[in-house]
Automatic annotation (TrEMBL):
<feature type="region of interest" description="Disordered">
    <location>
        <begin position="1"/>
        <end position="33"/>
    </location>
</feature>
<protein>
    <submittedName>
        <fullName>Protein phosphatase 2C domain-containing protein</fullName>
    </submittedName>
</protein>
<dbReference type="InterPro" id="IPR001932">
    <property type="entry name" value="PPM-type_phosphatase-like_dom"/>
</dbReference>
<feature type="compositionally biased region" description="Acidic residues">
    <location>
        <begin position="13"/>
        <end position="22"/>
    </location>
</feature>
<dbReference type="Pfam" id="PF13672">
    <property type="entry name" value="PP2C_2"/>
</dbReference>
<feature type="domain" description="PPM-type phosphatase">
    <location>
        <begin position="77"/>
        <end position="284"/>
    </location>
</feature>
<dbReference type="InterPro" id="IPR036457">
    <property type="entry name" value="PPM-type-like_dom_sf"/>
</dbReference>
Amino acid sequence: MSPGRHAAGPEAATEEEPVEWEEGARPCAVGDPGRAASTVVTEWDARFLFRNDFLVDGVRLPAVESPVADLRAACVRGLKNRYYGKVCQDEYGFLVSPDRRWLVIAVADGVAQGTHSHIAAQIVVRSGCRALSALLGQDDPSRIDWTALLHRLADEVVRYAQAELGLGDRVDVAGTLATTALFAVVGLTPDEDGFLPAYVMPFGDSSAWVLRPDDERPWIALQPVKNEGSVIASSATDAIPLVPHELPAAVKTSIAPGEALVLMTDGVGDALGAGSGEVGQFLAASWREPPEALTFASQANFARRTYDDDRTVVAVWPVRRS
């Protein structure tokens, strides 16, 4: 969770000979891929077992009457963490509510400075999905108390850090375990035009977008675009467990057939920018329709100079009616 520019990091390792990729293993180059994509040799982080370099999902989601949405998800350890032998700090998860009326999605990006931030991300995703699914069994998404939910998740992170790591107060915990949180609740009962309602709650610099079949402006941001209009880019962000007493309301939108709701950590979002550049054009063209799951992961793992952070993307496309 950083701007992805490290003078002493993987892009600095330019004296090595490029690794010989096997056929099909080369990541998609977008513009100048830089040398790091072909020279970085992945190092293992022996401190933490059972952390994957790649996670991929591709499913058609059930609803009350018939399948109504396709989901693709991918999480990829970034070149920076591969180079330094550190675990991936991103996490994602999704659940369908027991009544099959709602899809719950969570994306989290552990703060890079925290040695155990990936655990905070894992707690937020898993507990957040379960808590939202339970809440949706009792109430409508428009009535969810998001501030209370994020405080509940923050408290869980603090309890873990105190019990397992012997850390002190909330500020002390935030220096070791901290994470952004991005939640979406998508209705699985389409209206007469096939639109699916969606509620999005971002906390931190992970971002949510609607991808439209529009060559001029395909990406519509559902929150202010990070660093847009700033002279100097910043990697500072809000993060659990330091949650304010009041949060903005969730963003309500809808996804039409032919569109997609796309949630991403800043490993992809920083390169996407406002969506009008080369990365935006590449991903928009690639994700007009839901690709095969491994292809989706490869596309999320695009190679572009200086962008070496962990990458996570979850996308949902309403199923087109015949």
